[in-house]
Amino acid sequence: MKKITWNTENIMAVLFFAAAFIFPMIFGDYTIDNFANFYVTILISLSITLIWGFTGVFSFGQAVFYGLGAYTYAIISIASDGSLTIPAVLAAVAVAALAAAVLGYFIFYGRISNAFTGIITMSVATVMELFMTQTSDGKWKIFGVPLGGFNGLNKIPAISIADFKFRGTAFYLLVILILLAVFFFVKWIEKSNFGYALFGIRENKLRSEMFGYDVAKLQTVIFSISGALAGLAGALFASWSGYVVPSNFSVATSTIAVVMVAVAGRKNITGTMIMTWIYCWFTQKLAATGSEYSQLILGVILIIAVLFIPDGVMVALFKKLDTLPGKLSQRRGG
Amino acid sequence: MEEKGNKEEILVLKNLSKSFGGINAVEQFNLTMEQGELHCLIGPNGAGKTTVFKMIMGILAPSSGKILLNGEDITKKQPKDRARGGISIKMQVPGLFPDLSLKENIRVAAQNFVPKKELNTEIARLIELVHLQDVSVTNPLVKNMTHGQQQWLEIAMALAAHPKLLLLDEPAAGLGPEETEFTAELIEQLNHDGLAVLFIEHDMNFVKRIAKNVTVLHYGKKFAEGTMEEIEKNEDVIKIYLGK
């Protein structure tokens, strides 16, 4: 008899996306609109999975690319009066990818150690945030759109095709489809030669060179892809919220994604998606009940989780569930 | 100017030197290896053997001197280009990817050198070559494999690059007698198939068992060179190294 096995991660991924498509039939417009941003946040987490989980490079600066994506989308969509929102999304991705490639070039070809990479990326995010807060003077304009300093930009047009504006459930479904595409893209990387090259670099950089890998180039490429993904998240956020502010560049934006990936298990894509969703939901619940200690409570839970389950909560859970079919068939005496 | 050497010589080291903060780890070292040669580098601890290996692979830049591979000057080339040019190494300290499985380790080592369609066949071939078929059934994470298994896996990975010159830094270190014997047979077989092998080893029985030519390194300088029989009879070598 063939032994029954299953792959919990794949089952969870199917359930995760099935749930995402069913939610609009269960919940009201307000909740769905609210959920949309959860899935946008998941894109940032996945960008960390690529650079940190796959490649072992510790980036504390995904907010740089998220923020750049958000501002790029905002500026182009406002400047074009809402007529160029799709090009604005593409431009946001391109600007973020280019910024990441340039920053990555200096970091990786300069052979900067991993700990410093974290510090450098965090510093760049902080500088961007500070710079943006100081652009309230009217002279700071791009395409005639004032950057607005501390107040940022608002009345940002939503993504639209012809006269159809992606708002509410339409926007939600658009984000889910984008996330699904990104999920398959990341899964494809995980199985590809490129992915294995990244794993080798994560495990042993010097050894990888001796197998003929151009380590600095591969690191720069994945850093750029990761930045592009964060930029995409930024653009979607700008379209969803209708405003961008300098604090989109804040360390908190980067940190939360890093923590999510660490707690879920940094090599596990599905685990990271679920963990990020739960986190988003939980912070909102705690905040809504008026607890100003929500971040503190979560912080403590996360520290405990990382201390006791260093491989990741979701990874440990998936492993437990992987053994379930075997146990069930044993119980049946099979 | 690029120096062109003899194509019959797979590896030539010319006056190779390396100093670390004024201390000469390797001094004016010369070595010539013919195609298909099996050559052993011996010497007391700290003689500079591993430093020589690191310079051949490009991990360390020599302070002076030249390295020629198949007559081509590769002194300034990066490790990745040397790997693609046909040099492969098994390091002294296991240089594996601990959190990847056995097969994944070989894949990372092999995928630059075979088309993707042939990757699985190649992985199976390499596993068979180093007799890890039994272990590969469960395909464990490398960090959970025994020391001997890791040593052979590393040899398999070094071979995945289809090298013309294989560098082995202490292939028998920490192995039991049977494991050592298998390693010796493996190296002999590879050499028999035409692969040039340069290896460092402390286990003198192992060296006597397989080496044809031996170079003795002492305080970073070439102390003696010759066939195994000549070296064994060399009184100076016996004094500094063989300790008989």
Plain-language structure description:
The complex is a heterodimer of chains A (334) and B (244). Chain A has 334 residues and is mainly alpha-helical. Chain A has one domain. In chain A, the strands form three sheets. Chain A has a two-stranded antiparallel sheet with strand order 1-2. Chain A has a two-stranded antiparallel ribbon with strand order 3-6. Chain A has a two-stranded antiparallel sheet with strand order 4-5. Chain A contains 14 helices and six strands. The mean pLDDT of chain A is 88. Chain B folds into two domains: 1-86 and 164-244, P-loop containing nucleotide triphosphate hydrolases (Rossmann fold); 96-162. Chain B has helices spanning 49-57, 79-85, 102-110, 119-129, 133-138, 147-160, 177-192, 204-210, 228-233, 235-242, and strands at residues 9-20, 23-34, 38-42, 64-69, 72-73, 87-90, 165-169, 196-200, 213-218, 221-227. Chain B has a six-stranded mixed beta sheet, sandwiched between helices. Chain B has a four-stranded antiparallel beta sheet with strand order 2-1-4-5, covered by helices on one side. In chain B, helix 3 (102-110) packs across helix 4, helix 3 (102-110) runs parallel beside helix 6 and helix 4 packs across helix 6 (147-160). Chain B is globular, with a radius of gyration of 18 Å. The mean pLDDT of chain B is 89. Classes of the chains: A mainly alpha (334), B alpha/beta (244).
Annotation field: number of helices of chain B? 10
Strand order of the largest sheet of chain B: 6-7-8-3-9-10
Overall structural class of chain B, as computed from helix and strand content, comes to alpha/beta
Main sheet properties of chain B: 6 strands, mixed
CATH class of the largest domain in chain B: Alpha Beta
By CATH, the topology of the largest domain in chain B is Rossmann fold
Q: What's the order of the H and E elements of chain A? A: HHHHHEEEEEHHHHEHHHHH
